[in-house]
Amino acid sequence: MRDQVCEIVSAALMSDALAYDRPLPSCRQLADQLKVSRNTIFAAYNRLVDLEFLVSRDRSGYFVHPKMAALQTERGKAKAAERETQECPVNFKPNNLEPIIMPVDYRNYPYPFIYNQTDPDLFPVDGWRECSRQVLGRARMPAWASDAVESDSPQLLQQLRQRLLTTRGIYAEDDEILITLGAQNALFILGSIFAPQGNPVAMENPGYFGARNAFVQSGNTLIGVPIDQEGLIPSAIPEGCQLVFTTPSHQFPTMVTMSQTRREELIKTAVEKDLIIVEDDYDVAMNSITQPPLSLRSLDTTGRVIYVGSLSKIVSKGLRIGFVVAHRDIIRQARIARGVMMRHPPTIVQEIMALFLRLGHYDAHVQRIGDRFSERWHAMNDAIDTHLGMMQRSRTEGSTSFWLTGPEGFDSSALAERLREKGVLIDKGQRYYIGNSDSRSFRLGFAYVPVSKFQSGVKLIADEVRKPL
Known about the structure:
Shape: globular
Number of helices: 16
Strand order of the largest sheet: 4-11-10-9-8-5-6-7
Helix content: 40-55%
Distance between the termini: 74 Å
Mean pLDDT: 87
Structural class: alpha/beta
Largest sheet: 8 strands, mixed
Radius of gyration: 28 Å
């Protein structure tokens, strides 16, 4: 009987069913489970201790022996390697999606000039902790503990209307706002409710590949629309489209700002061509250099503009809070689609964010990072003027990155590979074009690199740019 128990325990060890940092079941527990005496279990455990399968710790119980834990780790690696060579039973067709490629170890590079990364030290930990503590109190529990498929946090909707939307010239009722898991989730929801209409989506080219992915994955076809120094060109939008996606505050990825005249032209074109405009206002709060123009939504009198915003990029990307403002009928359809996909965003996070806004933590945080990004923008602008004057640069105002373009024949992808070997990371420009049709451009983000390294990092880039291909 003892030997049978030893076989059971050792088999569990060999199958990695036992964690090395947690105690095994006590003699009483295992005896009850196997229907044997505690003496039998005690004898089996001690036999396994003698064989160095287990180790006994005073007042803590029996644990996997460190030698066995090391064997488990090696065996796990071998099994993982074996799984990697195993063929998948499904052959997937190409999906035309642009994967999100971000080195997980970007913090280890001396010069990570990549977009969409922020310094974690800027996160307002104290304010968020205080708001979390209050929301987690039992008195507030009814506000977030129940299901909320058909509604969102009334407190968050109120704060969005009063503190964020009004600054963009937008006035909306609660039934014209939908909370989402970030802007990316919002775009996928919109793509899913418009895809059955069957008409293509017009997109800026180059443009935000995350939006391309969302619209393609939700069943839409895309048509690229060229841009210039004022953003998307309305006259280039072809007939027959149902949606046009644009990033007017800071065009993604060139960072140019759409002029007021161009905005009015786009609104007029939407009426003439029966278009719905999806306005992604993703980076407007980062503009501390100039006063940004009012949103497209604020100019709209026909309900044709869908406004997409995000709190994730300002406070923390890990929070995943975005929102959509649109005609109430569009919001009604989007809410149904959201409920089918994932019911609703976590209500507790909505409640914490609402309190974070109401107590002024958000405004203080925006002011703090605005001052920081203003300093960084000027420093990066000077570094590019000093070292990369040979590159064509898009006109930007208070953005979080710079878009640079080389002459005909210039290959930014090859440049990125050479720079990576020298500890410099840049964003390849071709992935922002539909079909990767242009490789002359690249983007430099400056949110994470220390200001003291701007000059030396940009000089490294310039040295590689000057080398013959």
